[in-house]
Amino acid sequence: MNEAKEGRERNLWDATIFAGSIMAVALFSLSTITGYVQINSQPDGSLLQPSIGGSFLVCLVGAFAGMMAVWYYTRYVESHLTLGRGALLGVLTGLVVIVGENILASVWSLLDPDYTKQLMESLIANIEKMNIPENLKQQQIDMIGQQYRQVSSFSGFFTQVLYGFPLYGLLNVITGMIGVKVFGREKELE
C-alpha cells in the first residue's frame, strides 16, 4: 500500500515536470518570438502592439499546463483522480512552468545580451508616438525602464517567479480540475 502511494507521488512529479517543461519551452519560445516581432515593428503609437497580443497568447497557452499534466497522469499512472489531486497537479505544474520559463529567459539573455535593451527601446519608441499627455508618457516610460532593469538582475528572476506563480498557479489549478473532468474519472471518496 505504501509503495503504491510512493509510486503515485513520484508519478505526480513526472506528470508535473513533463507538462511544465513542455509548456515552459513553448511559453519561452512564444515570448521570445513576440519580443523580436516587437523589436522589428515600426513604432506607431498604437495600443495594439505585438508585445500585448503576445503576452495574452502566452498567458492563454500557459493556462493549459495543468490540463496537460492531468492528461499525462490519467494516461500513464491511473485514470481515477480527485478534483483536489487535479488542482495539486495544476499548481505544481504552474510552478514548474514559471521557473522553467524564467531559467530559459535568463539563459537567452546571456546568448543575446542586447535583446532586453532592444525590446525596451522599441516599447519606449511606441509610447513616445502615442497621443497621450506627456506626464502619462513619462510615467509609462519610467515604469518600463524600472521593469527591465529589474528583470536583468539576479533578484529579478525571483521577482518574476513570485509575480508569475500566482497567475500560472491559479490558472493551472482551474485547468487541472477541468482536466480531471475531461480526461479522468473522479475518484470516489472512501
Order of helices and strands: HHHHHHH
Q: Tell me how many strands there are.
A: 0
Structural class: mainly alpha
The end-to-end span amounts to: 15 Å
- Main β-sheet, in a few words? none
Strand percent estimate: under 5%
Low-confidence stretches: none
The average pLDDT value, as a whole number, equals 86
Sum up the overall morphology in one term. Answer: elongated
**Helical content, roughly?**
over 70%
Seen as an oligomer or otherwise, the chain set is: single chain
The count of domains is 1
Number of helices: 7
Task: Write down the Rg.
Answer: 20 Å
Output the keywords.
82% helix; mainly alpha; 190 residues
Task: Briefly characterize the structure.
The chain is built from 7 helices and no strands.
Task: Describe this protein's structure.
The protein is an all-alpha fold and 190 residues long. The protein has one domain (2-183). Helices cover 82% and strands 0% of the residues. The protein contains seven helices and no strands. The longest helix has 39 residues, at 2-40. The two termini are 15 Å apart. The mean pLDDT is 86.
